[in-house]
Amino acid sequence: MATILSVSGSPSATSRTARLLRHLDERLIAQGHEVIALDVRTLPAEALLGADFGHPAIVRATALFERADGVVIGTPVYKAAYSGLLKSLLDLLPQYALAGKTVLPLATGGTTAHVLAIDYALRPVLASMGPAHITPGWFTLDKDITVGEDGTLTVAPASAEALAQVTDQFSAALGGRTTLLAAAG
């Protein structure tokens, strides 16, 4: 199956965005894919803020993008745009870092007023990086993501269903089996 890079652009260590991505990673792994997680917040600030293209951490991140067949990009939305942390990383990647790849954009935020941030802020930047295909993305409201005291993640049923659908579409675009097909087979 495919190798997928799952990128969290959240600056928070307790990020709902990152937790949601790890939840979706499990679904993709169950469908037979290899998933590599990259939390941009773990990259050194001096590399990101100093625009140090040759910094070892940026070189490693670039190699992860090169290795991937598909990329899931997750970001919290702030003021109708994707995170500045994610922007910093995307700016340091080669112009066509997504060339030939399938991409799934995801976002989280506090209000439906930001639901179009995927299509009007994030998608154009991703498209400029040369992907073969950007699958339909999904915006999840923060209120639909609950983290229990034990760290377990619960997604509201309607959001969980929509996320499963876009994740399965992404998996199918990569040649993976969907959970529904796996259950039938």
> Which sheet architecture does the biggest sheet show?
7 strands, mixed
Please give the count of helices: 7
| Cα Rg | 16 Å
- Give me the secondary-structure category: alpha/beta
Low-confidence stretches: 180-185
Along the chain, the helix and strand elements come as EHEHHEEHEHEEEEHH
Which percent range describes the beta-strand content? 15-25%
Description:
There is one protein chain. By secondary structure, the protein is α/β, with parallel strands linked by helices. The chain is 41% helix and 23% strand. The strands form two sheets. Strands 1, 2, 3, 4, 5, 6 and 7 form a seven-stranded mixed beta sheet that branches. Strand 5 (102-109), helix 5 (117-128) and strand 6 (133-134) form a beta-alpha-beta unit. It starts with a strand and ends with a helix. The model is unreliable at 180-185 (pLDDT under 50).
Could you give the topology of this structure?
Elements: E1 3-8, H1 16-30, E2 34-39, H2 45-49, H3 56-67, E3 70-78, E4 81-82, H4 84-92, E5 102-109, H5 117-128, E6 133-134, E7 138-141, E8 145-147, E9 153-155, H6 157-173, H7 179-184
Parallel strand pairs: 1-2, 1-3, 3-5, 5-6, 5-7
Antiparallel strand pairs: 3-4, 8-9
